[in-house]
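Try this one yourself first.
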C-alpha cells in the first residue's frame, strides 16, 4: 500500500497521511553506530545485472575480471529476502537504456565505448543481448538474485540512479528517509547514487560486503572512506542481516 495517500470519508478529505509505527533497529556502523527506522528505510540494489556480473556479459566481454563481484551476489542472496521479510522495500536499480538511446548524452556513451569501436551501450553481444538496454538479457538480474511481487524496478541511464529517473519520486511516495545501498560497482554507480541521495537529503548507508567493484581494491576502500567522511555511514552486510532478521522475528511476534 502506498503510504502517501489522503483519505476521503463522509464528504471530507483528510490530508493526514496514515500513521506509521516506528520500527527501530540498532546497527553497528562507521563512523558511529546508528539507530535506523525500518518503517522509513529502503534497500537500493544497484546494477546486479548480467552485463556487469556474469561471465559472457558486457563487462566480461571487454576483458574485465568479474569474479570480485561474486561475494556481493552471495551476500545479497540472504540480505534481500531478509529486508523483504522485515517489511523494507527493495528497489532494483539497473541500467536499462532506451533502444534508440535518445536520452543518452555523448559523454555517457563515450565512457562505455572510449575507443569508439561501437562496443558500448546498444552493441549486440554474441548471445544476441543488447548492451545495457532495457529488456535485454544484460539488463536482467544476475542468476541467484530474484525479484518478487512488490519489489520496485527503476531503469537508470547514468551512473547515478537519480538522474532522469523516477527514483526520487518513488522513495518520497514511500515516505523513505534512509537508504541502504548495495550492488556494483561500489566506487562508480553505487557511489554516484549514494552521493546524489545524500545531497537530496536522504540518510545513506553503504552496505559493505553486499557492494563490490571490479576496480582496484583501493577504490572500494576510498569509497568507504568518503562515505563515512562526507555523506553518511557504512555497515557490514552481516551486521545488517542480523538486525533485519531480528526485526523480522519481532514483526512476526516470534
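Now uncover the answer:
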Amino acid at each position: 500500500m502506498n503510504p502517501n495517500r489522503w483519505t476521503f470519508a463522509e464528504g471530507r478529505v483528510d490530508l493526514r497521511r496514515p500513521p506509521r509505527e516506528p520500527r527501530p533497529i540498532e546497527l553497528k556502523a562507521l563512523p558511529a553506530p546508528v539507530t535506523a527506522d525500518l518503517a522509513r528505510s529502503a534497500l537500493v540494489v544497484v546494477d546486479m545485472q548480467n552485463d556487469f556480473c556474469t561471465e559472457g556479459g558486457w563487462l566480461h566481454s571487454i576483458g574485465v575480471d568479474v569474479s570480485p563481484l561474486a561475494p556481493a551476489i552471495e551476500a545479497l542472496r540472504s540480505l534481500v529476502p531478509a529486508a523483504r521479510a522485515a517489511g523494507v522495500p527493495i528497489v532494483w536499480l539497473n541500467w536499462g537504456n532506451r533502444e534508440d538511446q535518445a536520452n543518452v548524452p555523448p559523454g555517457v556513451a563515450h565512457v562505455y565505448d572510449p575507443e569508439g569501436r561501437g562496443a558500448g551501450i546498444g552493441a549486440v553481444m554474441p548471445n544476441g543481448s543488447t548492451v545495457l538496454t532495457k529488456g535485454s538479457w544484460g539488463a536482467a538480474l544476475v542468476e541467484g538474485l530474484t525479484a518478487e511481487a512488490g519489489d520496485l524496478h527503476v531503469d537508470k541511464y547514468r551512473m547515478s540512479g537519480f538522474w532522469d529517473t523516477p527514483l526520487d519520486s518513488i522513495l518520497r511516495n514511500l515516505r523513505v528517509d534512509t537508504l541502504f545501498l548495495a550492488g556494483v560497482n561500489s566506487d562508480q554507480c553505487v557511489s554516484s547514487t549514494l552521493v546524489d541521495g545524500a545531497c537530496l537529503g536522504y540518510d545513506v548507508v553503504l552496505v559493505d560486503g553486499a557492494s563490490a567493484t571490479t576496480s582496484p581494491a583501493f577504490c572500494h576502500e576510498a569509497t568507504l572512506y568518503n562515505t563515512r567522511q562526507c555523506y553518511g555511514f557504512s555497515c557490514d552486510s552481516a551486521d545488517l542481516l542480523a538486525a533485519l532478521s531480528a526485526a523480522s522475528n519481532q514483526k512476526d511476534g516470534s
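Discussion: The CA atoms of residues 149 and 189 lie 25 Å apart. The two ends are 24 Å apart (CA to CA).
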